[in-house]
Write a structure and sequence with these properties.
Largest sheet: 8 strands, mixed
Strand order of the largest sheet: 5-4-3-2-1-6-8-7
CATH topology of the largest domain: Nucleotidyltransferase, domain 5
CATH class of the largest domain: Alpha Beta
Oligomer: single chain
Low-confidence stretches: none
Strand content: 15-25%
Order of helices and strands: EEEEEHEEHHEHHEEEHHHHHEHHHEH
Radius of gyration: 21 Å
Distance between the termini: 18 Å
Number of domains: 2
Structural class: alpha/beta
Helix content: 25-40%
């Protein structure tokens, strides 16, 4: 019997999971998920090699408790050589209390639920997944891993906004996100380029952000209070002036709710192009609006990269990760060309082939394409923390 770790990423309408063998190397055993839980739920699972292990559909909506019960039951029946003893959860916001992973207790989950108003799009569902397992599978040792924790190493100055203390005391601060991904990337970069002290990592997926890292620790990041600020994203706006938001609401065209909907779901690459939120489609299109979206995306990255090189006092390494970062040679090439003044010079053939290192030997800054693995990072933290608790 193999002891295993169940890694859970609970969203509003989906549930993704991965199962890892407990141990030093944490090999992936299987993975899968349930999509469209609110309408036409569909389950699929595959082996570590990508072979299908099964599918199932439901004729009606299911909730998170039903989804998790199905996954655990499916694992017990179809992967009988696996015994799940630990569970790790991705949770977006850990607040000021958690600068690292935390063992799950009812009191911890109550604290995390208290942060939902600050991050309502992911936090409630992340916490719900952990609460369901705590109630229904109390024998499991569980760990929450937070996207914000990695950025608690930022200088206190960088975590502040120029607001009165009574407002800052409500939690109005620079949190930063994608921290689980950056945690993984910082460790991988240390293996590939151990001399690179000053690095900028670019997590470019449906959600996008950049992080300035010094000696593997975050000192600045583009996402701020919530998951909407910083770089433009697939459907999220990125930075928008506060006075513009006041103008839009005062003009009578928007309520807070409809404005939030527009900024989260109708902006970014989709809003600029008017056609698609998919970078692959946009960079292949000759449509002027599609090209505007791609150009603005790179322009925003260029501004932050220059600022972060200044904050770091120079730059030793540049890392691309996540969907766009790992697969868009065009975006990588354009950003690197704009940073030639920093001594960034890439090998275009290596870039086109998505090689691990895409910089030229004489480049003052090494440039890397490193696939991220947030689930493995969660499994690693869970094994280290829950394993000690179980001992």
């Amino acid at each position: 019997m193999i002891e295993a770790i169940l890694v859970v990423n609970a969203g509003s309408t989906s549930l993704k999971f991965g199962v890892y063998q407990a141990g030093a190397d944490l090999p992936l055993l299987c993975s899968g998920g349930i999509d469209s839980m609110e309408s036409h739920p569909h389950f699929s699972a595959s082996s570590a090699q990508g072979a299908s292990l099964g599918t199932q559909d439901w004729p009606q909506a299911i909730d998170h408790r039903q989804a998790l019960a199905f996954v655990v039951d499916w694992l017990e029946k179809h992967e009988q050589h696996i015994r799940v003893t630990m569970a790790g959860h991705r949770v977006v916001l850990g607040g000021t209390r958690f600068s690292g992973p935390a063992l799950v207790t009812a009191e911890v989950l109550d604290y995390l639920d208290g942060l939902v108003r600050m991050e309502p799009s992911h936090q409630p569902y992340n916490v719900l997944g952990a609460r369901v397992l705590l109630q229904d599978y109390s024998h499991l040792h569980q760990v929450c891993c937070f996207d914000t924790s990695f950025h608690r190493s930022m200088p206190e100055l960088a975590q502040n906004y120029a607001l009165p203390k009574d407002i800052r005391d409500t939690g109005a601060r620079h949190w930063g996100y994608h921290g689980i991904s950056y945690d993984y990337i910082s460790r991988q970069l240390a293996r590939h380029a151990p001399q690179a002290r000053r690095a900028i990592a670019c997590h470019l997926g449906g959600g996008t952000s950049m992080c300035a890292m010094l000696d593997g620790k975050s000192i600045e990041t583009t996402m701020g209070f919530g998951a909407i600020t910083g770089l433009p994203m697939s459907t999220r706006s990125g930075d928008v002036p506060a006075d513009l938001l006041f103008y839009l609401m005062k003009s009578g065209g928007f309520t807070p709710e409809t404005l939030e909907q527009a900024l989260y779901h109708r902006s970014g690459l989709l809003g600029l192009s008017g056609k698609s939120d998919d970078m692959r489609e946009l960079q292949e299109s000759t449509d002027p609006d599609a090209q505007l979206a791609v150009n603005y995306f790179v322009y925003a990255m260029t501004k932050y990269a220059g600022a972060y090189a200044s904050v770091l006092g120079g730059l030793d390494a540049l890392v691309f990760t996540a969907g766009i970062g790992e697969h868009s040679a065009i975006v990588r090439s354009r950003l690197c060309a704009s940073l030639a003044w920093l001594g960034v010079h890439i090998d275009e053939q290596a870039n086109a082939a998505n090689h691990l290192c895409i910089s030229k030997p004489d480049s003052a800054v090494s440039v890397w394409v490193i696939p991220t693995n947030e689930e493995l990072m969660i499994a690693r933290h869970t094994f280290e923390l829950a394993g000690k608790a179980a001992a």
